[in-house]
Amino acid sequence: MREEEARDALERAGSVENRVRRGGRWLAGYGALYGTGSIAVVLAVGLAPHGPLRTGVIAVCGVMMVVVLVVWAATRPVKPRGFAWLHTAMIAGWAVLYTVALNVGLRAFPGDPAWWVPMAVATAVPPWVMAAYMLRTSGGRA
Asked: What are the structural domain ranges in the chain?
């Protein structure tokens, strides 16, 4: 291989790497939307007026949000490096906070904004941290 051919090959490889890196930015948007949706669901569970349809409506909305995000994620052409562990860690952190928020809140703080607002924001932290990490490592905006 001549020097000119080697330079061209390195340039093409660098171009592909940049496109793939930018292609993984979608995970930042996913994390931002997941965190924001989590806030909405937790606030709805804790602060919505009690009624016969409350639980069903909130559950359907929460499930719809997750289904839309999962389908959207599955259709992305590029998965960022370390996607599996990063997404698993985010979901695990979120699940712990979400479980604590709902189990403790529904038993000890029903309808108390002093519990539900901070806990709703806390459930958004793992997805938002993932989003910030992806923006940082992908070199730009989502």
From this structure: 3-138
